[in-house]
């Protein structure tokens, strides 16, 4: 019993690592983490990949990692609910791949980007609509103080009111609010050493200075036939260093934003869209009470496996069965 108690405590503790899943998702959304670079390459990319591998399952996310632009084909991309561009740089997709990506975004695909993702595909209209604003420059890395503008969002719910650490503070070619963004995080510019900015000119990035934001309706031209709507977007300019990726504060911020964007109900993971992975096997069938005719449950289960409500029911029943089993064992 002690051993079991410890196991249960350990399970609870590992649960506490992350904020809850996007609860409405009946299956795990599948997300392509793309890290190809043509220009500057951040040495934090391997640490970013390790951390995403570690945290993904806590958020019910299936991550695939790639640096191969050939993955941007219709056949490959139809499996993905979301993409997460992590410190990608410059032009990494050829014109055909850009066309595939644009169509995927207009089909409900969900875009999230981190740090230099805004310095990628600068000539691709749909990419700019997805990310919200493109990179212009950053002053030298320094200790900066970031603040959430709201805590009423999964990306900022766990962020301290004043979060000070060493980061590259990005400045943009335009204000992401012009592209429909809602800014979630800002920086205290009064404490920032930035000789590049001319204080006599209105700041190109807008005010308050945008550090992380979301876009409910990215401004693509149209939605492809059959898609309920465009996917949401989320972007954070934080995430330069290994040290940052190793903090819970950053990972909760990032994955809070990514799961919020996926939860916009535009893909098959949410049983509404025309793209995405809705083929994750359902949980095993719940044990049935012993009855004379209970032997045919297997076939019945397979027939109804496509129904999301049945799957949700199976999950609840499975959880109850597990809880019952634990209780029985414990006595
Ligand atoms: C960050 O981590 C990577 C992978 O472990 C390592 O190669 C790199 O040197 C680290 N960067 C710094 C600045 O320590
Ligand atoms: C899928 O992506 C891989 C690269 O990851 C590529 O080699 C392959 O050709 C793509 N498949 C199709 C059907 O486009
Ligand atoms: C969905 O995800 C499962 C589990 O990773 C995988 O086996 C399956 O091939 C995926 N389906 C599609 C359409 O990508
Ligand atoms: C984008 O287009 C402009 C104007 O045609 C060109 O000067 C610039 O080099 C292009 N940038 C990239 C990254 O391709
Ligand atoms: C909108 O359509 C025009 C004309 O076809 C095209 O040049 C532009 O790239 C499109 N924008 C987006 C965001 O897809
Ligand atoms: C940031 O502050 C810490 C602690 O005060 C200090 O050790 C570090 O050198 C500072 N980093 C930078 C880049 O100024
Ligand atoms: C199987 O049992 C259920 C519940 O007891 C009952 O409603 C159903 O009619 C039975 N089916 C057959 C084929 O006996």
Overall description:
- With 331 residues, this protein is α/β, with parallel strands linked by helices.
- It folds into two domains: 1-18 and 312-331, no CATH class; 23-270, Class I glutamine amidotransferase (GATase) domain (Rossmann fold, 3-Layer(aba) Sandwich).
- 30% of the residues lie in helices and 16% in strands.
- It has nine helices and eleven strands.
- The protein has helices spanning 2-16, 45-55, 74-77, 95-106, 125-131, 242-245, 248-262, 297-304, 308-330; strands spanning 30-34, 62-66, 82-86, 110-114, 135-137, 142-148, 163-167, 171-172, 181-187, 212-215, 233-236.
- The strands form two sheets. The protein has a nine-stranded mixed β-sheet with strand order 2-1-3-4-11-10-9-6-7, with helices on one face. A two-stranded antiparallel sheet has the order 5-8.
- The structure holds 2-acetamido-2-deoxy-beta-D-glucopyranose (7 copies).
- One 2-acetamido-2-deoxy-beta-D-glucopyranose (NAG) binds at residues 66, 68, 70-71, 73, 75-76.
